[in-house]
Design a protein that fits this description.
By secondary structure, the protein is mainly alpha-helical. The chain has helices at 7-31, 54-90, 105-110, and strands spanning 32-35, 40-43. It has one domain (7-94). Helix 1 (7-31) packs antiparallel against helix 2 (54-90). It binds zinc ion (ZN). Zinc ion is lined by residues 96, 98-99, 101, 116-117, 119-120.
């Protein structure tokens, strides 16, 4: 592969990935629980409320929906980072999962956990 990443570049991306993973490892447990059975983060359920408090209930369900969306996007990022770090260990980092082409360095700079090249960025 012509533009194979050199070790220094990979080390740079690894540092970015580890920093972001450390940040997510602090943020995610505040709003989500790790489900080891499916290997995914799940939004923590809203706390139980009394039936009489309907406004509060609506607030909480909205809050829960918002939280679910946030958990989904942060959780996906967490998974992608974990996968990227595994690829670095296996020496397969920086390769598009769909085409097998090298992922553009600019794309990795913007998102070191990218799993696809620019041509396939919306396909995965
Ligand atoms: Zn591709």
């Amino acid at each position: 592969m012509s533009n194979k990443l050199d070790a220094k570049k990979i080390e740079h991306f690894k540092e970015m990935l580890e920093a972001e993973k450390a940040m997510l490892a602090v943020e995610l447990p505040k709003i989500a629980l790790w489900n080891a059975e499916i290997n995914e983060w799940e939004a923590q359920p809203a706390e139980a409320v009394t039936e009489s408090d309907e406004n509060d209930l609506a607030d909480r369900s909205e809050e829960y929906e918002e939280r679910t969306g946030k958990v989904r996007s942060l959780g996906k990022k967490f998974t992608d980072i974990t996968v990227a770090l595994e690829k670095i260990e296996n020496d397969t980092y920086g390769v598009c999962e769909l085409s097998g082409e090298a992922i553009e360095v600019e794309r990795l700079e913007a998102n070191p956990a990218a799993r696809t090249c620019m041509a396939h960025m919306n396909s995965k």
